[in-house]
Backbone:
């Protein structure tokens, strides 16, 4: 069914493409046509139009925290003495990788500088990882809902995302191992998880990671873990990295980023971590082709490693308070179900609406409460199974408590008024 | 023959991959195996070893100028007042794109902010352009020798590079149009040129660009021009952008970067420019998936647009002096042929050696003149036709005149001593 819909979409896209062709246009690629729009950013024009009409918009759609970047990182850039802004080493300088390896060791991830490739954001880390292990037509199994841009990177790499559904009723826990095994084919190259999860906020237990270990070893697969929210675990729970398990040395790949850890999303510095040297050497070739990560951001990221522990204690406390506020306010609204996140700073909420894409756009175009409205990310873009998540939205709790309370108040009023 | 060699390489790579397989390793992708090493960077470990032995290395291998970045750009970053280093807009802010469009208009390229997508370096601009117009198996025709990383981006995108040879005897002028036409198939999506050329330094005339216009219009192809060296034209010659020609609106794509223009290679800010809105909207989807270009570098790049014209006059004067010095010194060496560059800051030199890969490595490993040696880029990596360029190297004239004179002196002494 899913395949049939995809085929229809492709035929339509091709017709569209051929239509242009008759006007003597060179044609866009199939992958360019299939490339999804970001569910987090596609409604930006509607938000901008609302703002032009004088309506304030609370941005719950994007994981852009209002938390300050550590001063030590900001200062390092302000005090830099570069006269020529030169290329950095493709895989990152030995100094930075050595210092970064110490951060990992401290976090129970026993790696050395040679196990790291510095990338331009977690985005590029994912792209290099996918490119290094999969060819067009290969498959990667991902529990869904998943970070929407995995679809984008998969399309860019020609890789097919094979979703395995996790349910809001189970708080989006790891699907049963049998569900994974059913999906493994000769084309399967990896299982990809996000832990703690974006958009679900789910934190996989050590037991769940052990289950994944067994399955990837049995089938010779890579296990890619997007661990960019490593620090953001709540309620006394701790994070288990796929690189902390013995026996996964050849299989485990961690994708990482400074974006969320230090609230420096605009730096665009990430990292690939793996003990599989064949994989690392391949990723370095991708890194060489694009020359180097951004030099100023490397200065900020290396300095950020000196951020005092108190920064993280404060930030975590703030996120827990925001989460508690958001969840308790959301649960007051009739018809709303929300998964309680144990990590990251997102939650998925099920709303009493039929089509959250339409609802999210309506919030920006047709609704306001005393000239204020909210922007949320429709969840359909976080699924690759057509039709899934149509009554869900992702909410990022990246605003302060008062703004969150007001945002939910607006959402509640909107739901009452929404014609559905 | 070329295809046969590629097939053998693939079989060997697969054997290698399968060997690992027997040890229960998940396997690297075909594209990962085929991904070329950078000819510019692959010898870096030998250079580092030489330095550890106390040998100074003159770096003629990489287009990393010693020219200072404009003060206005450096100051903008030093004086920034950001407290949270946030994401930028995926395609670049409207302010920056508007200001950048004015730069293009001033350079006889009539575009608006909507024709621009800001990228993370020229590298990403090329990657998004290739991804937006071609699928695995599609073909792009490129005059060779060409910028080595085109091979890397093509491999990453699954695109086949179809080379059309330009000759050192003709100073690397545009190959005859019939040579292009012979190579066009139903899979051809674009012709890609670099103008002024890296590694050749060749500057295409308006007449040559007109010839390319005819052929892309006749066959409905894109014409991608890498114009990152636009400012670097010498001897009173001027640059012709593919976007300055009428009638190419749907076909022309310019790939650009701040790296060379403002000597800020480490910024990693580039740009895609096209009047084809279907193409631009597709490229924006690729841009959204990777979230945003680096924020600090955007601050530097926007400020760099206020660089006074005198900066470019001085820089150009300096490069002309360097070029003249380098070429006249090289021509003194017996057996050396060198193409006289009219733009950019590279030249290709033909040396009396059989294998310039071996020679370049030997320079670093086994040779020094009073504890000094030079690093050059073997030209074979700038060709995709196997066996081509084996007696050529690319030399970047990014060092001052005295260093260039000394470098050629070292090269001359090395050629006398080299066992060949």
Residues:
């Amino acid at each position: 069914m899913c395949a049939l819909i995809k085929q229809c979409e492709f035929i339509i896209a091709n017709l569209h493409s051929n239509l242009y062709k008759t006007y003597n246009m060179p044609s866009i690629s199939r992958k360019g046509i299939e490339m999804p729009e970001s569910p987090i950013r596609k409604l930006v024009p509607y938000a901008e139009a609302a703002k032009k009409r004088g309506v304030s918009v609370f941005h719950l759609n994007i994981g852009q925290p209002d938390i300050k970047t550590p001063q030590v990182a900001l200062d390092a850039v302000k005090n830099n003495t570069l006269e020529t802004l030169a290329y950095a080493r493709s895989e990152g300088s030995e100094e930075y990788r050595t210092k970064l390896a110490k951060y990992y060791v401290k976090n129970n991830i026993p790696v050395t500088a040679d196990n790291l490739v510095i990338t331009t954001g977690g985005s590029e880390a994912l792209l290099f990882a996918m490119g290094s292990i999969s060819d067009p037509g290969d498959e990667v199994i991902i529990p869904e809902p998943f970070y929407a841009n995995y679809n984008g990177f998969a399309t860019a790499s020609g890789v097919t995302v094979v979703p395995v559904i996790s349910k809001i009723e189970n708080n989006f826990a790891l699907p049963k191992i049998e569900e994974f095994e059913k999906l493994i084919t000769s084309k399967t190259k990896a299982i990809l998880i996000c832990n703690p999860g974006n958009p679900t906020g789910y934190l996989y237990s050590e037991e769940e990671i052990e289950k994944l270990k067994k399955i990837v070893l049995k089938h010779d697969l890579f296990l890619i873990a997007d661990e960019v929210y490593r620090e953001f675990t709540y309620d006394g729970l701790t994070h288990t990295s796929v690189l902390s398990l013995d026996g996964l040395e050849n299989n485990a790949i961690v994708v990482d980023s400074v974006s969320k850890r230090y609230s420096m999303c605009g730096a665009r510095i990430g990292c690939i971590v793996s003990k599989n040297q064949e994989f690392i050497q391949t990723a370095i070739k991708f890194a060489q082709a694009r020359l180097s990560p951004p030099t100023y951001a490397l200065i900020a990221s290396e300095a950020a490693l000196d951020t005092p522990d108190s920064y993280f204690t404060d930030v975590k406390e703030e996120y827990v308070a925001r989460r508690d506020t958001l969840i308790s306010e959301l649960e007051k609204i009739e018809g709303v179900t929300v998964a309680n996140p144990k990590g990251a700073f997102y939650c998925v909420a099920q709303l009493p609406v039929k089509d959250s894409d339409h609802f999210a756009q309506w919030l920006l175009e047709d609704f306001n409460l005393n000239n204020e409205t909210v922007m949320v990310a429709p969840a359909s873009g976080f699924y690759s199974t057509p039709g899934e998540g149509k009554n869900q939205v992702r909410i990022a709790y990246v605003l302060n408590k008062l703004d969150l309370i007001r945002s939910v108040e607006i959402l509640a009023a909107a739901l009452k008024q929404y014609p559905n």
